[in-house]
Specification:
Elements: H1 3-14, E1 26-30, E2 33-36, E3 41-44, H2 47-50, H3 59-69, H4 82-95, E4 99-103, H5 106-125, E5 131-135, H6 144-149, E6 166-169, H7 174-180, E7 185-190, E8 193-194, E9 200-201, H8 204-214, E10 220-224, H9 239-242, E11 248-251, E12 262-266, H10 287-300, H11 305-321, E13 326-332, E14 335-340, H12 345-354, E15 357-358, E16 360-362, E17 365-368, H13 376-390
Parallel strand pairs: 3-15, 5-6, 5-7, 7-10, 10-11
Antiparallel strand pairs: 1-2, 2-3, 4-12, 8-9, 11-12, 13-14, 14-17, 16-17
Helix pairs in contact: 3-10, 4-10, 11-13
Length: 392
């Protein structure tokens, strides 16, 4: 039995089988490559589902995190820390928001957004205006509220009863939105690019309609940017590609470079909604995660960084569009979905693993979420492996 197999056996004996895992026991990583326990090297075009935004163990990021580990690893949110204050200031300034609540994940960020929207409406209009519209094919998390908000039937099983107060509208269907946007609605929650739903970007016409219809009724817009945010789509926020700023935006995944972090950003009219004891988190705003977040922000906002993200995205699309097995390429920036003609995405992902390449899937598409720092040689090598598999 090799080292990989020993770890997998021990892992499967004691860890809940809640994931369909690939047979890879990862030992270490550097840059955009990782190594398994048998010494095999992999090019990573998945970045931990978009979380290792600066790749593995980026030197400046690691230095910042290690310095914080040796300074203060945790404190109660009854007290203040400079590192959380600095991260909050940088994040709000960069994203264009007034305040932020820190949690530990995308689901927690979305839970916070749901609570803020409902309390905003309750405070201003009283009971009965609590429904939140979400989109068919959306994904917002795996807690009870965020599962209830998710617009995919495949997730609506086992855990009955689900939470009430969520209404699904078909993505890009303005008439459906108009029909359901009644006086019981307090917010509309969207992903500009539906990640788990197949890497599908919303049309500009639909996004414009959401904002135009919500504003006169004081219905909040919540942008779930857990996967699209922090530079992933070539802008700091995906909403910037549409020229829109939601009342509430949620972030997670790549925000702290691989450390548990979620953020719920609120504009001026929502920033005073959360009052003492209405929400909380033991680990939210943890000093170590905040140190990682500052390092990510400094890199992503550096001159020319996002321009390079867009150039890399075009490089990938050009390579893929010349592949005979590729029907279409969807997404924005370095958030890419690949529709195949005849091959199954899951089969392609497994074959890629065998050949030293990590990719993801989203429904029937191969999904790529490479580290934002990936270089062109690594992209070329990784895409050559993938295209070779697809054209066999």
């Amino acid at each position: 039995m090799n080292t990989n197999e020993k770890t997998i056996e021990k892992f499967d004996k004691h860890v809940a089988h809640s994931y369909g895992r690939y047979p890879l026991a990862m030992k270490k990583g550097s840059g955009r490559r990782c190594v398994d326990e048998n010494g095999k090297v992999y090019i990573d075009l998945g970045s931990g589902i978009g979380t290792n935004s600066l790749g593995y163990c980026d030197e400046k990021w690691a230095d910042a995190v290690c310095e914080q580990v040796r300074t203060l690893q945790h404190n109660s949110n009854y007290y203040y820390t400079e590192v959380q204050a600095e991260f909050a200031e940088k994040l709000c300034d960069t994203a264009g928001y007034s305040s932020v609540f820190f949690g530990n994940s995308g689901a927690e960020a979305n839970e916070c957004a749901i609570k803020v929207a409902r309390k905003y409406s309750f405070d201003k209009y009283g009971k009965g205006r609590h429904n939140i519209i979400t989109l068919v094919n959306s994904f917002h998390g795996r807690t009870m509220a965020t599962l209830s908000a998710t617009g995919q039937d495949v997730f609506h099983n086992y855990f009955f009863p689900f939470l009430e107060g969520f209404i699904n509208v078909e993505a890009n269907n303005i008439d459906d939105l108009k029909a359901k946007l009644d006086d019981t609605v307090c917010a509309v929650m969207i992903e500009y690019v539906q990640g788990e739903g197949g890497v599908n970007a919303l049309s500009k016409e639909f996004v414009d309609a959401v904002y135009e219809l919500c504003a006169p009724k004081d219905i909040l817009v919540i942008a779930d940017e857990v996967q699209t945010g922090v530079g992933r789509t070539g802008k700091f926020l995906a909403g910037d590609n549409y020229g829109k700023k939601a009342d509430i935006t949620t972030l997670a995944k790549g925000i702290a470079g691989g450390l548990p972090m979620g953020a719920c950003l609120m504009n001026e009219k929502c920033s005073g909604v959360l009052t003492p004891s209405t929400h909380g988190s033991t680990f939210g705003g943890n000093p170590i995660a905040c140190a990682g977040g500052i390092a990510v922000l400094e890199r992503v906002t550096s001159e020319g960084f996002l321009d390079e993200v867009n150039k890399k995205a075009e490089f990938i699309k050009t390579k893929l569009e010349n592949c005979s097995e590729v029907v279409s390429v969807s997404g924005l920036g370095l958030m890419i979905g690949i529709q195949l003609k005849s091959k199954k995405a899951a089969d392609a992902a497994r074959e890629a693993l065998d050949r030293g390449l990590l990719v993801l899937t989203a429904k029937d598409k191969v999904r790529l979420l490479p580290p934002l720092t990936i270089d062109y040689d690594e992209l070329r090598d990784g895409l050559d492996i993938l295209i070779g598999i697809l054209e066999e």
